[in-house]
Please model this.
Amino acid sequence: MNSTVLAMLIGPFMLVIGLTVLLNQKALWNIRDDLFKSPALLYISGLMIFSAGTAIVAFHNIWAPDWRLIITIFGWLMFAKGVLFVVFPDIAVKIAGSYPKNDKMLILCWIIMLAIGIFLTAKGYYP
Model:
């Protein structure tokens, strides 16, 4: 799979998630809490995340020192998160419970995600 095509898919995804977190934090915290209270939801989410991560890693395991590395790392992180949710859900719940309640730190993380989303969208649609 072509890096540009993956940038076209992942960039807007990260953009929308980043915007959602920045503009609607309370709703997202509630969704996160609901996810980790439901073993079935956690399992299904894990399978979806694992599947997407596996696909990216299988078709785009490029460790070049350029922008394509972002896609590879994103794929591996999704793969690992999916495995965590499916195989070790108790650990995932503990990790989620330990998220910092420091909104400024979380906002910084999501601003970085938003910036990566903008960057990948630009690489995908305007190579």
Q: What stands out?
A: The longest helix spans residues 103-125. The two ends are 16 Å apart (CA to CA). Residues 21 and 28 are 6 Å apart (CA to CA). The chain has six helices and no strands.
